[in-house]
Amino acid sequence: MTELARRWMRLRGFITKETLQIRRDPSSIVLALVMPVVLLFLFGFGVSLDAQRSPVAIVIDSPGPQARALVERFSLTRYFHPMPAASMEQATAMLNRHAVDAIVRVQSDFADRLHRPGAAPVQIIVNGTDSNRAQAIQAYAVGVLANDAAQRVARGESSAINGVVVEPRIWFNDAMESSYFLVPGLLALVMTLIGVLLTALVIAREWERGTMEAILATPLRPGEMMAAKLLPYFILGMMGMAMSVGLGAALFGVPVRGSLWVLVAVSALYLLASLGLGLFISAAARVQFIAAQVSIVIGFLPAFFLSGLLFDLDSTPWPIRAISHIIPARYFISAAHTLFLAGDVWPIVWRDATALGIMAAILIALARSRLGKRIER
Description:
By secondary structure, this protein is of the alpha/beta class. The protein has helices at 3-24, 26-46, 65-76, 88-96, 110-114, 131-155, 178-198, 202-209, 212-216, 222-252, 260-284, 288-305, 318-324, 328-342, 346-376, and strands at 54-60, 80-85, 102-106, 122-126. Strands 2-1-3-4 form a 4-stranded mixed β-sheet, sandwiched between helices. It starts with a helix and ends with a helix.
């Protein structure tokens, strides 16, 4: 029997052992196949960045057909729930007790100023306690007013300033659905859980159960052991990714405008980087509890907070932006958003895929080096 055949037999036997161990451990199956479904429902239905059905107090100083037509536009959009107020004093009281999120005031000379050159101002007062929600409400309100102004100009009912009419266009996510933004980023969390958290326990588990001594007595080499440890979890991670993409498209209608094969390739690179980080942690720690805590701190939390999944990294302080460049999830989420919503924008995809490939190679090499030192001891 050749040396290559012997290596393949050892590798196949150890992969079979790892596969059986995963099947006997319900937690691995739950994290790999059940957790993606839970996260998808949580992010798709429970987490929303949209300000929908926001209560808004409507104040009309002088009721008239033009003012009523403007107010009706707030009733026709899903972003607002108009609540009439008799005066600014009543509307202010409603805002102070958080009964409404904003006030829209149509002033008394609104109808007259529509037919004169210049502007017919509408006052918008927004509760800025939650700055993100306030900005969203303000943007939606301005959009409603801009749409109303454009249609009035088109019908000749008002004058446009210098002949300019605002016509807003939203690219890539014209429905402004936050699920279109959150579901692609969810892939990073799913593969981080599988790649970092589960893999961080595989070597530590062997030490705690006392089976590592038996493994060290075999002719299995460090590279073969690493390959056998990573391959089953790589398959689990890709299964979780496929399930998330399928459920996201079926339940929330999230489009995949880019190549599905490119998405699979980029996902594989990110999963390899996560597996390398998880195995490095596992090789460095002999206790599962410590390995799990470390994997959460340096794996899951950075992927959640420093990747651009929920927060715009450009608005964070420069030290945070600098740290985010060493987080693999940052590049994967950027590529995922591009492939899902924009398509095959190759300058972005190549940049992110290259960064993920470099990080995967470095992390796997570090894991191989650390595992080799542990086995040699």
